[in-house]
What does this fold into?
Amino acid sequence: MSGAASTAHVPVLLHESIDLLQPERGGLFVDCTLGAGGHSRALLNRLPDDAQLICLDRDDRAHRQAHQTGLADEPRVRLVKAAFGDLPEILGSDCGRVTGLLADLGPSSMQLDEAGRGFSFQRDEPLSMVMDSDQEADAAHWLNLVSESELADVLFHLGEERQARRVAAALVRARPLERTGELAEVICQSLGQWPRPGKKHPATQCFMAIRMAVNDELGQLDRLMENLGLILAPGG
Ligand SMILES: C[S@@+](CC[C@H](N)C(=O)[O-])C[C@H]1O[C@@H](n2cnc3c(N)ncnc32)[C@H](O)[C@@H]1O
It folds into this structure.
């Protein structure tokens, strides 16, 4: 999964993942995580003319990008703004007909790099971190309501932050938290570590954990995995 800092977008394991899907078989494919469309475009380039590709993303930004790049105009492509945890409902009668499915987890480079999304400690801005712009409960909301013990568990289990209890206590004391800058500052202070050129930012693991909790990333993945048997065609 991606961290909280990013450079120009490079789709992860592009050729390897498309090769594994064997697009030349044709049929119905699903890209669960459209993002900037790199995987979808590469898949489309190898799909037969009568194949179909459903591209999901819960972020409007990914859909705007697909319109800007022309991916949305491809006759074989259907864009759906939805979460992949709901894939059986989205597929309806196509459930059980999917030949190949791809999920490239974590935030997109657009989410990390764009001002105003609140995913990154690189800019001081409102603490949003939501992938789906329709989601009302953002990171500030979550951080200001979560119990100290749940916060510590999230930082430890999702962020592998060894000082999770200390950071959670400091964050609870610092409430209300409203901005990425404040969040990064409190984390650094509680760890007694400060950003240094060429080194990983001390708040990286905690930012990742909070983002994963706010977007229920593991819950979504669990639902997708549980439903795979329903979604995929035999041999898919
Ligand atoms: C790492 S990016 C995908 C990058 C993409 N493969 C590409 O080539 O540009 C992940 C994308 O998945 C989306 N996403 C994450 N969790 C999702 C979910 N549960 N349902 C739908 N989209 C999701 C994010 O909004 C983000 O745009």
The CA atoms of residues 114 and 234 lie 41 Å apart. DSSP finds eleven helices and four strands in the chain.
